């Protein structure tokens, strides 16, 4: 599991450019699925078909979704000196950018660093204000002619920050948001193989979440599920963060409650957790969540949706930190929940 | 092209009231297409059939440019005959100060503001009004009603290859599309040309038309910002350096295959082009690409200075090259 996560973190998958990582995910899905599809935007669908109910009643179509895209940078211009100006794709905190190592996906892969002025030669007061992204540039260590030959406007820039194992089951690296949840999609498939279930289960690795849950909009339309299960990350607790918006790193996965999520179905999910002794924390969320769930819920005629989240520290940085145990726990909960959808599942969706 | 652009930028058509501009465009293109219809939202949809025969269905390509323009909608008429207004689309208070505006019925007025305002930075549209020269409410109400919409009154002017005027956003795109329809050769693709409504209020006409057209690929034509004026927000696009192949804006990340198709066609045909990374703003393809199961989409942008002012500026060569680029994409077989 950790190896697959490490492999995913190393693959580029910037929003709108997910073809490479989609291919790897498709390969992994095929090991555990009856059928795997990829659409024209590189959403990947892994389909597992359960045993249909004996009484001939329809089995639910369940779509689990986790997004594959990562926040990143894009070349906005090449300066006369051969440095790159850039913009962000998705929410990048400009305060973390200085001195980062990056990969530029030009005509070939290039190594770059986001340049800074050393403290010795800064003007008085410079160190007190944050540098704006529009004033930053990337140094490739190459002469300007070479840069202009290899890089053009619109080329993608990803962070270099492979998976690092910390103490116990904690790991950090870039794009844990939301590749850890993609790993969970696969873990759910493994769990399902040990269980009896009736549902037709789609695992959708969605694209373009970081720029507006766009992959979820089109993939949910295509699948037309009866039930949606979004999997994403939420904020892990740190000493300086507000308590009410963060979650413990060792007290179980997070289940969201609020208008974006179906109340009856969320209750069933929590009952399943209670029944099997799976720890969880509650995230009370007042509006549409910042996850694929916001779009899944309002696809076509509406899709009853639940949301499972992994606590993660330092979101949208290169050291996103999480607990691997949570991936296992979340996978077990989701698989057991799917298995519990038997004849009469439609009753769960009623108000 | 100059005459066409002058004509189209002079026709009234704020979002939601596109009747006149739709008629003007329909008149231009109706003899050059196989079918033409207007949908319930008011989108004008024209079809040029594929030349392919046989069992293989042609690739259906939707090309869109929005007909609507920004405007000022009347919310209140006071006892002295001054009209208060709200915005239709992105209207900046600073762009409309002391501008001449015109209503659908031809009544014109001047936009001004409450001069007791101490700091111009605090100027908001609710501190502004339109003066149509009426002596009182009664006289004003004979000419204008609440809910009427005014647009800039700014006939197009030219200086060499540069054209100035209002509503270049997006009548420049409409003009390119009209010109393409008139000049395009036979195509193996099924070409659906949509002149959309309500782009300025949220890419709304594109949303319904993309759903009904259900294309395999889409291209929008719209204006984009430039970074070539003094101390402008940095951007690599310049006026006159060719149409821009959009890479991204706030509404979409152009599909890599569509983007590459545009670049390849431009290179093959020797058409000058630029690459556009726009950090704000959106266009019809933002709606279209999320229609149904997703439509791979791109945008050909026309560099334009002073967008949403009464003096938007475009370049003749950029327009002509945009037509060439669009035609070279649409005339050839498309494999995504």
Task: Give a written overview of the molecule.
The complex is a heterodimer of chains A (about 350) and B (about 325). Chain A is of the alpha+beta class. Chain A folds into two domains: about 1-70 and about 175-350, Zn peptidases (Aminopeptidase); about 70-160, Peptidase M42, domain 2 (Elongation Factor Tu (Ef-tu), domain 3, Beta Barrel). Chain A contains eight helices and 17 strands. Chain A has helices spanning about 1-10, 20-30, 145-150, 175-190, 215-225, 265-275, 295, 325-340, and strands at about 35-40, 45-50, 60-65, 70-80, 85-90, 100-105, 110-115, 140, 155-160, 165, 170-175, 200-205, 225-235, 255, 280-285, 305-315, 320-325. In chain A, strands 1, 2, 3, 10, 11, 12, 13, 14, 15, 16 and 17 form an eleven-stranded mixed sheet that branches. Chain A has a six-stranded antiparallel sheet with strand order 5-4-9-6-7-8, with no helix packed on it. Chain A starts with a helix and ends in a 12-residue tail after the last helix. The mean pLDDT of chain A is about 95. By secondary structure, chain B is of the alpha+beta class. Chain B has two domains: about 1-70 and about 165-330, Zn peptidases (Aminopeptidase); about 70-150, Beta Barrel (Elongation Factor Tu (Ef-tu), domain 3), CATH 2.40.30. Chain B is built from nine helices and 17 strands. Chain B has helices at about 1-10, 20-30, 95, 135-140, 170-185, 205-215, 255-270, 285-290, 315-330, and strands at about 35-40, 45-50, 60-65, 70-75, 80-90, 100-105, 110-115, 130, 150, 155-160, 160-165, 190-195, 215-225, 245-250, 275, 295-305, 310-315. The interface between A and B is medium-sized, with 27 and 23 residues.
């Amino acid at each position: 599991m950790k190896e697959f996560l490490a492999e995913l973190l190393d693959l580029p998958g910037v929003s709108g450019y997910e073809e490479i990582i989609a291919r790897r995910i498709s390969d992994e899905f095929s090991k555990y699925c009856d059928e795997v599809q990829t659409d024209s935007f590189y959403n990947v669908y892994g389909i597992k078909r359960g045993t249909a109910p004996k009484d001939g009643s329809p089995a639910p179509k369940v779509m689990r979704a986790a997004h594959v895209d990562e926040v990143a940078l894009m070349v906005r211009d090449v300066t006369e000196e051969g440095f790159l100006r850039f913009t962000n794709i998705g929410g990048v905190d400009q305060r973390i950018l200085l001195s980062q190592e990056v990969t530029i996906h030009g005509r070939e892969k290039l190594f770059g660093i986001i340049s800074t002025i050393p403290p010795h030669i800064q003007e008085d007061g410079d160190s007190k204000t944050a540098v704006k992204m529009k004033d930053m540039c990337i140094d490739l260590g190459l002469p300007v002619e070479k840069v202009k030959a290899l890089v053009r406007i619109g080329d993608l820039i990803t962070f270099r920050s492979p998976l690092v194992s910390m103490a116990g089951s904690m790991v950090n690296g870039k794009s844990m948001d939301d590749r850890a949840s993609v790993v969970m999609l696969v873990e759910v498939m493994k769990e399902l193989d040990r269980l009896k279930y009736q549902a037709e289960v789609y695992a959708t690795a969605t694209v373009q979440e970081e720029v507006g849950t766009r992959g979820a909009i089109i993939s949910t339309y295509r699948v037309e599920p009866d039930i949606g299960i979004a999997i994403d990350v939420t904020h892990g607790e740190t000493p300086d963060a507000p308590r009410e918006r963060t979650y413990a790193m060792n007290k179980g996965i997070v289940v969201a409650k609020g208008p974006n999520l179906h109340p009856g179905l969320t209750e069933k999910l929590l009952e399943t957790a209670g029944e099997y002794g799976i720890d969880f924390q509650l995230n009370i969320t007042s509006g549409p969540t910042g996850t694929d769930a916001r779009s899944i819920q309002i696809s076509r005629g509406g899709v009853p949706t639940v949301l499972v989240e992994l606590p993660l520290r330092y979101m949208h940085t290169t050291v996103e930190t999480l607990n691997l145990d949570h991936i296992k726990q979340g996978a077990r909960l989701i698989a057991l929940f799917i298995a519990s959808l038997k004849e009469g599942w439609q009753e769960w969706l009623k108000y | 092209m100059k005459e066409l652009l002058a004509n189209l930028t002079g026709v009234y058509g704020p979002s939601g009231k596109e009747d006149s501009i739709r008629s003007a465009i329909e008149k231009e293109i109706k003899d050059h297409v196989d079918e033409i219809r207007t949908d319930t939202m008011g989108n004008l949809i024209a079809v040029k059939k594929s030349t392919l025969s046989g069992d293989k269905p042609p690739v259906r390509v939707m090309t869109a440019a929005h007909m609507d323009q920004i405007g000022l909608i009347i919310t209140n008429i006071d006892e002295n005959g001054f009209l208060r207004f709200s915005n239709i689309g992105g209207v900046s208070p600073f762009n409309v100060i002391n501008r001449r505006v015109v209503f659908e019925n031809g009544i014109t007025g001047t936009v001004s503001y409450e001069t007791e305002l101490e700091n111009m930075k605090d100027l908001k549209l609710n501190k502004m009004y339109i003066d149509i020269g009426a002596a009182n409410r009664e006289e004003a109400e004979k000419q204008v009603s609440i809910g009427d919409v005014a647009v800039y009154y700014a006939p197009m002017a030219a200086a060499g290859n540069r054209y100035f005027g209002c509503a270049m956003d997006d009548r420049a795109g409409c003009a390119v599309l009209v010109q393409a329809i008139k000049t395009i050769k036979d195509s193996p693709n099924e070409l659906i040309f949509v002149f959309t409504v309500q782009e300025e209020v949220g890419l709304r006409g594109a949303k319904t038309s993309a759903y009904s057209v259900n294309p395999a690929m889409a291209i929008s034509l719209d204006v984009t910002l430039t970074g070539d004026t003094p101390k402008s927000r940095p951007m690599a696009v310049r006026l006159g350096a060719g149409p821009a192949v959009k890479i991204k804006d706030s509404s979409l990340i152009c599909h890599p295959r569509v983007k590459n198709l545009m670049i390849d066609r431009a290179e093959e045909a020797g058409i000058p082009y630029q690459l556009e990374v726009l950090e704000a703003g959106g266009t019809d393809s933002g709606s279209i690409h999320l229609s149904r199961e997703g439509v791979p989409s791109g945008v050909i942008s026309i560099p334009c200075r002073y967008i949403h002012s009464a003096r938007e500026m475009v370049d003749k060569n950029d327009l002509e090259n945009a037509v060439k680029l669009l035609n070279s994409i649409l005339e050839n077989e498309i494999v995504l």
